[in-house]
Amino acid sequence: MTDQAYESAYLTWRSSLATLLADAAQLERWQERRYRFAHRVGALLTEAHGESPAVTGPVLYGVFATGAGLCYVGQTQEAERRLRDLPVGESHHLANTVPPELWEKVVVIRWPLLLSGVSGAEQSLVEEMGSVVCGLALEHALQVVTNPPLNSRRRRTSGDWRPRNLTQSRSRGALHAQRIPELSRLVHASWTALSQAAAAGHPTVIAGDAGRVVFPSALHEPPGAPGDLPQGDGDG
Residue 158, class by beta-carbon neighbours within 10 Å (0-12 exposed, 13-18 middle, 19+ buried)? Predict the structure, then answer.
């Protein structure tokens, strides 16, 4: 995209928002619509779905946007809280940069469910590390192999950005990532399977053995029905 095309698109975005926020009533309508969508996405990420139980405890997650692809990889010890807030953006920066209305899919990996597939020695290492450190280690390993752009830079107080070399990180996660190669491989395999899951029929959720993939892109309002989300999930 040329600089001129980029600036034109930015001005169009600002103009559209100005129209949607034209008065107090429109502002309320905008607030309600955005929260309704974010709440729906959060529910799909966390609540029980068919035979897939509610998502709780430690998880890894990644957000994909149409065009840009994978934008961000994160982890949490409280999926039931963090994943609900993720599209709302009250305690997470992602939704402020990439609005959930533009999210194509969100992959969630419940990594503790994969522990039975690793050796006894590595299971002991995970127990010794603890869930918090293990989650950070798995997050780092997945970020290194996927290189999401929003994990690859840091904001600076000067108002600009500096790149992050994830392979040279000295964070807690980076320092422990090499200790759990078997679990990291299983996480990556599950990640790959879910991130490549076909979305035929416009499903909202596809469940896997160790997680799920949610498609916010399937929730957009059909033409002629302003203000309402589709009544059916269209799940596959």
Answer: exposed
Residues in the chain: 236
**Residues linked to residue 106 through DSSP beta bridges, in sequence order:** 63, 214
Each residue of 128-157: pLDDT tens digit? 999 999 999 999 999 999 999 999 998 899
pTM metric for this prediction = 0.89
Q: How many CB atoms lie within 10 A of CB 103?
A: 23
Dihedral in degrees, nearest 10, Cα atoms 160, 63, 190, 154: 10
CA distance 128 to 153: 31
Could you tell me how far CA 106 lies from the centroid of its own chain? 5
Element (H, E) at 144: helix 131-146
Cα–Cα nearest to 188, from 120, 109, 123: 109
Let me know: does 33 contact 17? Beta carbons within 8 Å: no
Asked if 39 and 83 count as a contact pair (C-beta separation under 8 A), the reply is: no
> Which residue carries 């990594």 as its tokens?
111
77-87: pLDDT as tens digits? 999 999 999 99
What is the Rg, in whole angstroms, of the alpha carbon atoms belonging to the chain?
Answer: 19
Q: What are phi and psi of 194, to 5 degrees?
A: -70, -40
Amino acid at 82: R
Ranges assigned E (strand) in the chain: 59-65, 69-76, 103-109, 153-155, 161-163, 205-208, 211-214
